[in-house]
Amino acid sequence: MNEKGWRQKSVGDRTFDIALRILLAIFVIIVVYPLYFVVLASVSDPLLVSKGQVLLWPKEMSLFGFQKVFEDTRIWIGLRNTVIYTVLGTIINMAATLPAAYALSRKDMRGRKTVMMFFVFTMFFNGGLVPTYLLMQKLHLVNTIWVFILPFAVNVYNLIIARTFFENSIPTELYESAALDGCSDFKFFVSMVMPLSKAVVSVIMLYYMVAHWTDLYQGSETKSAPTCAAGDSDCE
Amino acid sequence: MKTFSGQKQISVRKQEPLFRNIRKRYQLWLMLLPAILSIAVFNYGPMYGIQLAFREFDFTKGLTGGEFVGLKYFLKFFRSFQFTDMIRNTFTISFATLILGFPVPVILALMMNQIRRTKVKKTLQTVFYAPHFISMVVMVGLLNVLLAPNTGIVSSMLGLFGININLLGDRNAFVPVYVLSDIWQHAGWNSIIYLAALSSVDTQLYDAARVDGAGRWQTICHVDIPCLTPTMIIMLILSMGNILSVGFEKIFLMQNSTNLTVAEVISTYVYKIGIRSNQYSYSAAIGLFNTVVNFVMLITVNRISKKVSDTGLF
Predict the structure, then answer these.
(1) Where would I find the H helices in chain A?
(2) Is A198 on the interface with B (CB under 8 A)?
(3) Considering only CB atoms, which chain A residues are within 8 Å of B270?
(4) What is the per-residue pLDDT across B102-114, written as a single tens digit (0 to 9) for each?
(5) Closest residue in chain A to residue B18, using alpha carbons only
(6) Which chain A residues are within 8 Å of B111, Cβ to Cβ?
(7) d(Cα B256, Cα A41) in Å, to the nearest integer?
(8) Which of A179, A230, B148, B286 is most exposed, with the fewest beta carbons within 10 Å of its own?
(9) For residues A101 and A163, is the Cβ–Cβ distance under 8 A?
């Protein structure tokens, strides 16, 4: 809370505080309970869980599920691969997206609208599953680790978020004065824009990381026949 | 170009020729280059395959060698008996998700922004983000347990209020269950973008508001929300452009024989027709129809937004 004591606050602010706390508490319960339930279910007797008798605390502790997980070596290989793809993929994503977003946010760059159209168009038009697979095959990416890292280095959605941020929070005057002192575009980006944009950089990084982490589609599409899509159990 | 953009440029200088501008700004173009290359190769590269929608697919002749059949597959789709159902389902699900789901992240962000103690705020953020990381398969499994008739906790609680409904089997329950669980899972995560926007609000504005005697509620209404509006509009336009592309995985996993009449959407149909039964041309045609509708929506909403609020994507 700020410097004012509870008594000095206006009635409105006090009501606001109380309402805020109650609402947040309700939200927390709604979000947390199902998650807590997953933990409960994982350590309880499966039979009681399916009967709906496990609600608040674990019953008949059983670590059967975890035992199965630790015994399965495929899970560990999968985990290792996912970590590698996530780290490398995110680095490439950031290196391609952020400079481009900054360049597109500069109002003194001509042709940026056209380039933006070129990017945005791909959000709503794509070639589809089969042509994409055939392209990967032509580029010899299929069955290599690059297929997880190189394609789709730029997510246009994230690019737009970053561009909007740069446009609104990097003042034109800042660049102009830096340019007067002989600062190049590169240097300005690295030593001024990046430090000023930590908030958006971390958001974009998080978005990319989660996308890599939960990516099921890319793997199933490019490791097997082109007729496989996400969730198709026949193609494992 | 100037009339199309509609964006107000503060500095009104004489525009230099494109070539001179490129030479002067070559570093910016170099920064753009990796992104342009990536998009050109991986997004535009496969696009030539769209012609598949107008051709018979022939394995021996490849993508472009098949016989040209014009609009045959589009007509087949429009005439199929599932067409109206599917369009209605898709629109219902995505509009419900949009209308109910859009305000929640904004409200969450505004609320979390009110918390001064960073520790509490960080904890809450972590809690609200957590569901996003649950994979779709686990999520639907979770729904199956929590909403199970008789034994599930949600069903028993609704039973207390006298509502007895099979949340998993009843056709009327499908859309609410889908939308509400979607909000549950993603609202916290989607609030990140608004929190980031709020964190860059000029603190002088808050000071000025306090000097003018604004309470916290008034500060939200007159400082926070106006500062969020550009971000909100961009997010709205983007989600309008995806109006026909409702999430495939979740709907597919939630489908069962009793709710199929309300749960069959375009993406699941494309999957079943195209991938399962190998009708590539037909599925490409439906996919193209889907993208065309999305594109028209996006352009329309963007135009309206430009006219009304001067904010837009392009």
Answers:
(1) 11-43, 46-51, 64-71, 73-105, 112-124, 129-138, 146-149, 156-169, 172-180, 185-188, 194-196, 198-213, 217-223
(2) no
(3) none
(4) 999 999 999 998 8
(5) A110
(6) 20, 23-24, 27
(7) 24
(8) A179
(9) yes
